[in-house]
Amino acid sequence: MYRFAVYGKGGIGKSTTCSALSCAFAEMGLKVMQVGCDPKSDSTLYLHGGERIPTMLDVLREKRERATLDDLICTGYRGIVCAEAGGPTPGLGCAGRGIAAAFEALDERDVFEVVKPDLVLYDVLGDVVCGGFAMPIREGYADRVFIVTSGENMSIYAAANIAMAVENFRNRGYASLGGLILNRRNVPDEREKVQTLADDLHTEILADLPRDDHISDAQDTLRGVMEVYPDCAYAQGIRALARRMLEMGEGQ
């Protein structure tokens, strides 16, 4: 089973990237599971026609121990198995602890033994790498971490922090850094800035994804870009990235 975690600053496009990657992997014939680890709970939005699926935390609050695995997961576009951790009531509770509780609920219900996915993709908010947000790195859920960034200063700063967290856990046999995914915002010297970050982190830019209006045009129809515009430049870049990620996963 391939196990990948995709991190990035909020708003950098990591959820769009994850959903597109899930579609690309599913196109290859893999059974894919995507787990959203962001309190906004929008990771799988465009795999379900723009509808938000019930979050695991909401289900657990309502049903507690009566919640079944079928209550916690849904099947979306191309048979992709989707789960959204969710978050606490605004102003109450800790989002990181909520993610940890959601992961524990999946483990207790033997999700991987039941679903038997070929590939699991975690979509993780990277503004703060602590507590539950670090679980895919430190608890053995993911083997490789990929960081989505642009050439914007705050995005690069967040990417560096995420990479530092991965490095801190590396010697414990946890996930390793797979590389950077450049999701362009068309800022000046963007490629050069991200390449400097990659050099500093001793890693590489695995994909240079264009800023593509087809993404927002597809979302206007409440569907993902891979479904509506499968031949656009962004979709082609995603497929190339998916192939590279699989090659790295085979090297584990």
Question: Summed up, what is this model?
Answer:
This protein is of the alpha/beta class. It has helices spanning 14-27, 56-63, 69-72, 95-108, 111-115, 135-138, 153-170, 190-201, 213-220, 225-228, 233-250; strands at 2-8, 32-37, 74-75, 81-84, 119-125, 144-149, 176-183, 205-209.
Question: Which key terms come to mind for this protein?
Answer:
globular; alpha/beta; 252 residues; 18% strand; Rossmann fold
Word description of this protein:
Strands 3-4-2-5-1-6-7-8 form an eight-stranded mixed β-sheet, sandwiched between helices. Helix 1 (14-27) packs across helix 11. It is α/β, with parallel strands linked by helices and 252 residues long. Helices cover 43% and strands 18% of the residues. The radius of gyration is 17 Å and the shape is globular. The protein has one domain: Rossmann fold.
- Class by SSE composition: alpha/beta
Figure out the total of helices.
11
- Tell me how many strands there are: 8
What global shape is seen? globular
Structurally, how many domains make up the residues? Answer: 1
Mean pLDDT, to the nearest integer, reads 92
Query: Strands of the biggest beta sheet: in what spatial order?
Result: 3-4-2-5-1-6-7-8
Oligomer: single chain
Cα separation of the termini: 11 Å
List segments where confidence is low: pLDDT < 50 over at least 5 consecutive residues. Answer: none
What fraction of the residues are assigned to beta strands by DSSP?
A: 15-25%
CATH superfamily: P-loop containing nucleotide triphosphate hydrolases
SSE topology string: EHEHHEEHHEHEHEHEHHH
Radius of gyration over all CA atoms, rounded: 17 Å
CATH architecture: 3-Layer(aba) Sandwich
